[in-house]
Design a protein that fits this description.
Length: 363
């Protein structure tokens, strides 16, 4: 069989969007299966069935990556770990660094107590750890520079990850701050409901300056050059994570801009990107819309039909400004496979419809 790759973005259907990505690639006649996130717990069964149906009914998965602790990413991986033999589980477990973190938490004097509290705070990751220990699955840390098969971890660094654990609303030191934000929740919800759209000219970009949150910024960003196709998987990384990843690119010989397959971060949220960040990864805005059929890269958005907040029109515009073909599981209403030309054919699969250019965007 010729070398090939398949990257499947599964349609995670819930009230909010999630990520579940299955990857199979063959290089020099050696094949790997690589799973990145599993959506919600209910998504796990669908992910398992997809791998069995389209990846030759395997019993073994080389790598499973939990990009960050949110339930819309880590939940469904429980089924994957239980149904397959897994080579390595990659995830960041804050409690492994409790001794380093302890001086930064005024309320704790015991490393063991801090470990227990961190496991309570991140139950999805703790549940995966329990399954991995029970099944004898090796676990490793996906910090910047780690090699996961053909993929390289671009972010986060350990130091930034530990800072994010401390900065998180969920961690003990921020309880008072989190309470204040919770009290303000009703006002923020009202503002969100009142978001208006404004008609905009080609090339105009309006993004939010709000922080996407510590847990999202913890996201593991992965890059691979698969058969000459440059792939970037971003999970829910925000501007900080994407900048850290771009700064690391020269270390692995990656010249930016120049990504061929781009996972749009956080289901197309406009809090995660900026013009400057997108310019670094994808290139400057084009002076005019690309001619249909002459787009330069693919941008894939994982978003649920019921999710009213994603993807944002501003983000879709930004992708097209840089010459992208943009596809979304929300518009498609089904899974999306981004594959090489030599990938095995699939009965019933066809080209994904592309999102049109929005003439308006969020104010």
């Amino acid at each position: 069989m010729n070398d090939f790759f398949e990257i499947d973005f599964l349609d995670v259907e819930a009230k909010k969007s999630g990520d579940a990505i299955a990857i199979r690639y063959s290089i020099n006649n050696i094949s790997w299966i690589h799973v990145v996130d599993g959506g919600y717990q209910d998504t796990g069964t669908k992910l398992v069935e997809h791998i069995r149906k389209y990846y030759g009914n395997p019993t073994y998965i080389d790598h499973v990556v939990a990009t960050h602790p949110d339930g819309d990413h880590a939940g469904g991986l429980r089924s994957v770990l239980e149904e397959f033999k897994v080579g390595t589980l990659w995830m960041l477990r804050a409690w492994n660094y409790a001794d380093e973190l302890l001086p930064r938490f005024a309320r704790f004097t015991s490393v063991e107590n801090l470990k227990n509290r961190l496991k309570e705070i991140y139950p999805n990751i703790a549940a995966l750890e329990t399954i991995a220990i029970e099944r004898g699955i090796p676990m490793q840390e996906p910090f910047q520079g780690a090699k996961i098969g053909a993929f390289t971890v671009m972010a986060p660094t350990k130091s930034r990850y530990l800072d994010l654990v401390v900065d998180s609303e969920k961690t003990p030191q921020s309880v008072a701050e989190a309470s204040l934000k919770a009290a303000d929740f009703g006002f923020r919800e009202f503002v969100k409901a009142a978001v208006a759209f404004v008609r905009s000219l080609w090339g105009e970009e309006v993004f939010s300056t709000d922080w996407p949150g510590a847990e999202n910024e913890m996201s593991v960003v992965q890059f691979a050059n698969l058969l000459g196709i440059k792939v970037l998987l971003t999970a829910d990384a925000g501007r900080d994570g994407l900048t850290e990843a771009a700064n690391f690119a020269p270390s692995i010989g990656l010249v930016l801009p120049g990504i061929d397959r781009f996972q749009v971060p956080h289901h197309g949220s406009r809090r995660n990107v900026s013009t400057e960040v997108l310019d670094r990864w994808l290139g400057k805005r084009l002076p005019a819309p690309p001619i249909p059929g002459q787009e330069s890269f693919n941008a894939i958005i994982s978003a649920a039909k019921a999710d009213e907040d994603h993807p944002r029109k501003a983000v879709i515009r930004a992708m097209i400004h840089r010459g992208a073909r943009v596809a979304s599981t929300k518009e498609q209403g089904s899974d999306i496979c981004s594959a090489s030309t030599d990938a095995p054919t699939r009965v019933g699969w066809g080209p994904a419809p592309l999102l049109p250019y929005p003439e308006e965007q969020e104010e």
